[in-house]
Specification:
There is one protein chain. The protein contains no helices and eleven strands. It is an all-beta fold. The strands form two sheets. Strands 1, 2, 3, 4, 6, 9 and 11 form a seven-stranded antiparallel β-sheet that branches. A four-stranded antiparallel β-sheet has the order 5-10-7-8, with no helix packed on it. The relative contact order is 0.28.
């Protein structure tokens, strides 16, 4: 189940801005040292690389995702999630509207 809120966290005020502002996120830090980012992706195609493995949960909107090394993209809507391996990457396309997400670093 995708959380609707997080308690007892520290929010980093400075946003992470990518692709001329078409992808924006904020980092949240937990007491145990883990972190997540929550953000928005505006329409368009984007490619991201990963250092650590990531779990992307779609909170609202829709996107299609093609992991590096795979030949086909899959579509995800609110409630969906996908995992990206460490030292890899993915193409993500938002066809319209805004896609809202939570990214957990595994």
């Amino acid at each position: 189940m995708i959380p609707s809120e997080f308690s007892n966290v520290t929010v980093v005020a400075k946003s992470n801005v990518y692709f001329d502002g078409r992808v924006v996120s904020h980092t949240i830090k937990f007491a145990d040292g883990s972190k997540k980012t929550i953000g928005l992706i505006y329409p368009g195609p984007f490619h991201f690389g990963t250092d650590a493995s990531e779990r992307m949960e779609i909170v609202a909107g829709q996107c299609s995702v093609k992991l590096d090394g795979q030949s086909a993209a899959q579509t995800y809507a609110a409630g969906g999630a996908f995992v990206v391996p460490a030292k890899s990457g993915f193409d993500i396309t938002v066809p319209s509207g805004i896609c809202e997400y939570i990214c957990s670093y595994l």
